[in-house]
Design goal:
alpha+beta; 2 domains; 3-stranded antiparallel sheet; 3-stranded mixed sheet; 7 helices; globular; MPTase-PolyVal
Length: 273
Amino acid sequence: MSGYDDPRWCTFDQAAAKGWRVRAGEKATSIFMWKVQEKETGTYDDDGEPITRKFPLLCRFKIFNFAQISGPEPHQPHQLTDTEARKLAEPIVETVGMTVTESATGPTGYNPERDSLVVRPRVAYPSEKHYCADLMNGVLAVAAREAVIGLALPAEAEMTDHQRAQRDLRVEIARSMLAMRTGLPLSPPAAVKDAAILTLLQSDRREVFRAAKDAENIMRYALAFNPEVLPTLEDEHREQMSAAVAEGAPEMVFDPSEFQFWPAELQQDRPRP
């Protein structure tokens, strides 16, 4: 983001609280957090339950990269090892339960109707990290269908070009988020996906905000299948919500105690173990 090598960011107040100082002349970067707020309408359904209305809430915050701040320790980038990549991806793939097969010549990718993922032979990848990245691409495709209830994607054969572009945009953003977070290699999307996504974004300027929020849910949904990663995700969520409230966001919306990687509609009958 903004060309910095250091992936760490914080607000002015967060830096000040640690005794750090934003260097003179440095300019903040604006970020946006997208949340859905639910309010009662004052009316009730036939069962006497209150009828609620959902509407989006977009909050803007200004943050600084650690490279702009005096005080924090220099960033020491970590190079993901093959062993670490396997430790991350393999428990997730096993828990998700989709069938993984290898093919040297046939088409690759996730098939939602068969709940199966086709990848290249393991020996064909430059490294184990690249193989694990392809496995996680399949998991993100699963998550895009299961974690984003509002998208309501139909069967693959019934999807419109618009729906397919919406899904692809979310998966591509989630792939980028996953690569930044874990260090897994990131391969560029197919040109046809790029063109469809660009058309979608040109037709709706707010789609990127909705997609970014969904992409974060997709990434977290996927990573939450690894029991060693889940506690870290929960801590991060609480820190993010607390920081947003400290910057003036409404606490009733940015509630640190509310944490669900599984969408509410899936709480009772999740499609995965």
